[in-house]
């Protein structure tokens, strides 16, 4: 029905949802007939230049060429060969059609935001597990690269990164079932922080990329009588979970990255805890902005829990 009409203006809000040029939604939207087109997004590009092409293909069809030509003329030289001249030329080509405003320009009334790096020292069995995981995965990655080359070893590399990050968060995430008890230094520090911050009547959001980590945190909260809300991709009633936190029924909000990255207004919070660092700083900032946004009238404190002497520390350095 929408495609049969001719519109004067078409506006895509949350336009990052069309960053995949091959998605059905993106293909349908390109067929919309409109004299004027606009895209509004906080993240026009997150992973690669193809996402910029996809958004621009709606706003200005054909302006950056077709997908194959764009990859050949722009993506390959810039992403694979580090061609700075092509990067500057692409920026200049796109610039006339971009209007960018930073949060500092839009929300001048926002209170201050303080960011604190909370370094966690892994000790005993957890440290031993991390080191053994690092060594075993290092061998596995080197063997894969020697056998298949780096280009065909991405899955092995990602697996290595995942397992080391899980060992930093909580050994239980690795599901070893070897009968060895390995406490999590991060989880213990989080429980201490929540107790201290709650005594000061602070409202806390805890973000983790691992829903299984949130399950482990929930068990501790249940045992300690901490009132919390939970939001993951499996949450059926998002509204109730959000309102419980915003209205004060819950003092802590446990949120997974995918479920809480966008579309949430949690200005009741004055404290954000990033339990595990993410590879993309922009996504991390989006998560923090669930609390630090228009309507926030309290100073916001952001704590990043980072395991010392691990891949997490390299990740954030």
Describe the structure.
The structure is a single chain. By secondary structure, this protein is an alpha/beta fold. It has three domains: 2-100, Tandem AAA-ATPase domain (Rossmann fold, 3-Layer(aba) Sandwich), CATH 3.40.50.10810; 109-120 and 184-316, P-loop containing nucleotide triphosphate hydrolases (Rossmann fold); 124-174. Helices cover 45% and strands 15% of the residues. The chain contains 13 helices and eight strands. The protein has helices spanning 24-30, 49-59, 67-80, 84-94, 103-106, 124-148, 154-169, 185-199, 211-224, 238-246, 257-260, 281-288, 311-316, and strands spanning 6-12, 33-39, 113-120, 204-208, 228-231, 252-256, 271-274, 300-307. The strands form two sheets. A six-stranded parallel sheet has the order 3-8-7-4-6-5, sandwiched between helices. Strands 1-2 form a two-stranded parallel sheet. Helix 10 (238-246) links the parallel strand 5 and strand 6 (252-256). Helix 2 (49-59) runs antiparallel to helix 3 (67-80), helix 3 packs across helix 4 (84-94) and helix 6 (124-148) runs antiparallel to helix 7. The N and C termini lie far apart (51 Å). The relative contact order is 0.11.
């Amino acid at each position: 029905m929408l495609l049969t009409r001719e519109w004067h203006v078409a506006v895509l809000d949350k336009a990052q949802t069309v960053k995949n040029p091959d998605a059905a939604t993106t293909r349908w939207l390109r067929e919309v007939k409109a004299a004027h087109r606009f895209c509004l997004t906080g993240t026009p590009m997150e992973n690669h230049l193809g996402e910029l092409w996809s958004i621009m293909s709606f706003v200005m069809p054909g302006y950056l060429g077709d997908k194959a030509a764009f990859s050949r003329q722009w993506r390959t030289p810039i992403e694979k060969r580090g061609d700075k001249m092509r990067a500057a030329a692409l920026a200049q080509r796109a610039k006339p059609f971009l209007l960018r405003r930073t949060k500092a320009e839009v929300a001048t009334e926002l209170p201050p935001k303080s960011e604190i790096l909370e370094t966690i020292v892994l000790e005993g069995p957890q440290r031993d597990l991390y080191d053994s995981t690092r060594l075993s995965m290092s061998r596995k990655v080197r063997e894969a690269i020697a056998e298949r080359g780096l280009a065909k070893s991405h899955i092995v590399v990602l697996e290595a990164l995942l397992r080391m990050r899980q060992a930093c968060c909580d050994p239980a995430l690795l599901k070893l079932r070897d009968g060895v008890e390995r406490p999590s230094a991060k989880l213990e520090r989080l429980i201490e922080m929540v107790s201290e911050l709650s005594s000061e009547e602070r409202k806390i959001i805890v973000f983790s990329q691992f829903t299984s980590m949130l399950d482990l945190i929930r068990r501790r909260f249940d045992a300690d009588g901490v009132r919390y809300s939970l939001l993951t991709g499996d949450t059926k009633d998002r509204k109730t979970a959000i309102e419980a936190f915003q209205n004060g029924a819950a003092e802590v909000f446990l949120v997974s990255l995918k479920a809480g990255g966008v579309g949430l207004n949690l200005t009741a919070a004055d404290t954000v805890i990033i339990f595990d660092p993410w590879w993309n700083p922009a996504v991390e900032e989006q998560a923090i902005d669930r609390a630090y946004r228009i309507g926030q009238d309290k100073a916001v404190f952001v704590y990043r829990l980072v395991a010392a002497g691990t891949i997490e520390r390299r990740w954030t350095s």
